[in-house]
Hints:
- This protein is mostly helical and 222 residues long.
- It has one domain (6-219).
- It has 10 helices and no strands.
- It has helices spanning 6-36, 41-44, 52-58, 60-74, 87-92, 94-125, 137-156, 164-168, 175-186, 191-219.
- The N and C termini lie far apart (46 Å).
Amino acid sequence: MPNISPEQLALGFIWYVVFLFSTTCHEAAHALAAKIGGDETASLGGQVTLNPVPHIQREPWGMVIIPILMLVLNGSIIGWASAPYDPHWERRHPRRAAWMALAGPATNYLLMLIAAVGLRIGWSQGWLHSGGPRPDFAENLLGALFSLNLLLGTFNLLPVPPLDGSTGIMLFMGESRAQRYLDWVRGNSYGILGLVLAIFAFRYVYGPIETVATEVLLKSHF
């Protein structure tokens, strides 16, 4: 067990709460978009909610155990969640399924923008102290909300299974091509390979995206 200071413990708690909230919003957005599109699978499972309990019950390892272990062991946070859907509905309505998939990352980006607005207002009004030696609770909370949702939204948009981007790209396909694409993606076990590729590629694509988002949303003068 590493030696954890009270400050590190408090910061880890903030990051975990932000992860739990952001992931819950992400999956609730999937469930709501699917319900609007005609698939009530996730809705009937109680996942059209910002209450994290149904999402934790579905993925306790990804929502609680692994994230907390990673925070304790190396100070980073890794986790996952999922919302159920009807694969027959996905085949009948591939464009609706694409919108359902994109709703999750879109929600993460919305939360990121809300955090950016909160930080900019807080700094301009003197409520938050940018660059101070010890950021206060509110600044740590908004900073974590900005960073984690930028990361979650961007990672999930990578167009490889099982990430949301692999379904979202069907928005740009005709129905017959989308169904052939689903035959290929769903008919093979590409999940592990896709995650490996995503983790490898993410190291190269995220840095520039993070830099641009930080410069434009947090540091630019407008």
